[in-house]
Amino acid sequence: MSGGGNEMNWMRAARTWSLAIVAIFLALVLAYADLGKVAHSFSGIRWQWAIWVPILNLANTFVEALRLSVILFPVKNELRVRNCFNSTLIGIIGNIMLPLRFGDGARAYYLARAEKIGLSHSLSAVALDRVADFLVFFLLMALTAVLHPFPPSVTKMGIAAGSFFAAAVAVAFIFARMGLRLGAVDSAGKIRRRIAEETNKFVAGLAVMRKAGLLFPVLALSALSWFLRAAMVWVMFEAFALDLPLMATPITLILLNFGIAAVGTPANLGGFELATVAALKLFSVEISVALSYALALHVLEVVSIVAVGSVFLWLEGFKTGEVLKTAREVEYPD
């Protein structure tokens, strides 16, 4: 338990520091923003456009659930999409309630328990789900950079993030191969064999990568997911009557995702707003308007998915409070 206590202390410290940094930057933004104009921008929201944000967000959640079910098809071809949808909701709500994306762990744990598959299978599927998502994101960024060059700082950040992503995937595969070799030795001990068994399950969860007929749907669903997320950004431009060029949508989406990735706060609080304001500043949008846009988009995304997700999970017999319990079980299994 002492190790677990140290990890919890480290998590609290990381969350405190990230919140402190975000609070400082938000204070600077608020210092330059005209709160009267922020309120005026809110009052002028065209709700016939804004109402599409929660609808598109729920549609994207379903697309992500479909992608996860395709990834797990080689492991269990009778997988229920309903459980994938539930696990995706649990992951989203968990990431909102917890720092450092621990919701993804809760998502994998719930799916393993609901579908009675190995946790290693489920973890590898969720990891591959993230890889597919990031891969399409970097392709989107590369295409956007060709059509509309980013500022040098953003380009450097993108190259660094892409390099880190590629290195992380390579290291994961190297460790997977090492784990398989541990069990291949006749004299391998009990611990080594257990590692090899779990590694085998993890690698089995990546089987979709060897099946071109399934890999294409995974990437296609990832592209559709990013399209729906871009649509949320665009409809909010219309809701605020912002007359911006077409490329403002992918650029805002890309910088927004870099912002929330850099700051691991619950519900992406602060990082979401700062990144959105910075993106809109590139298109000469006034800080007050950009801040009201960011706040409105964030609230519509978070509140809608938490509200609908909580009701849906409650109807399924899974209380929202269990997300935290499930996440703790992932961190400290018996």
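(ticket continues) Second input and output from the same batch:
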Amino acid sequence: MESLRGFATSDLLYRLPYATFRLSLEPLPILLKFLLLFQVSALFALLPAIAMADSLFWVVATAETEPSPYRGDSVDDVTIWIDDQHPEDSLILATLKASNQKPVKPTGILVYDLSGKQIQFIPGGTPNNIDIRYGFSGIDAGSGLVAVSNWWSNDVYFYQADKTGVKRIFDPAPTNLSDLRGICLHRTQDGDIHYFVFAQNGHSEQYRLDTLGVSHLVREFKLATTAEGCVVDDKTGALYVSEERKAIWRFSTENMENPPIKIFKTSLFGPLRADVEGLALYTHPDGSGYLIASSQGNSTYLIFDRNHNRLIGRFKVKEDTYDTVTGSDGLITTSRALGDQYPAGVFIAQDHQNHNDGRLVNQNFKLVDWQNIEVHLTK
């Protein structure tokens, strides 16, 4: 039997199963020994995930949007336009991606106020994911540039969001992709606007948008399997991508030729369970903040430290005034104060199975006061 003397505690954790069972396994067939050792090793490999289960906490929704006009899986992603002068008047923009009926009914962008009331609908396209950036000189000052990926036509629509509402701008920007899914915007240190798009088969592209609204292909790259959720940290240049069945990856937008870094992988029993969907950043001007990911397989949200990408917590949105949130696709968060109701910002997520008094109704989006999340992270 192999000696255990001189091993560190971490060594013992992984070597003990082999040392303990080696003598008793000697008479067994080689294949059976391998299978038993594999099972023991898998159990010990899950210990970090089991320990992380203790970090799960629960919050409740503060508000919800009106339900989608269509049944089934009809809404997907969400973003926020922030009114600098009157933050309480900020707008929620969400994608209505499918009507799930024949004849097909209009799809497009749903616009809500912070109470969840729908105040506008902009028909057009088959929008899947959505993102926003500020400071783009090609549109009116103080407004936000919104980019939307269309899954049927495989092109990108652009919108301007301001206090008057949301409107289409520019011509559609074609891509070279099929089954287009994810999109995220990036404002470079030079002030240029870029965007990344991701397809069902993992093929991906990066474009630069000029001030006339014309898109220019920068590069093509590929992930092994389906990727959709993505977000760019403009300050650090990090591009985070969720490869749905495998992992969350971090690319450097300044060195896209370099291989990405795996932030966290999915597992059958661990905290991150396929599909990995929406990604969002909660940021502060001093550089601190969080990366939040939707773990659709167990209806939880994982929180990573912004700077070191260390998993520091995870939460669920449980039933209270509003129902439990399940199977989220898109999500968004902001640290900006949005009036008295959201003094530290808000977290918004798609609710895949929306219930009203126990009855299944059309999908919608739930809003959570960020203070209710932050209090668990600072304990």
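Agent notes: Residues 148 and 181 are 10 Å apart (CA to CA). The first strand starts at residue 56 and ends at 60. Closing as not reproducible unless the customer responds.
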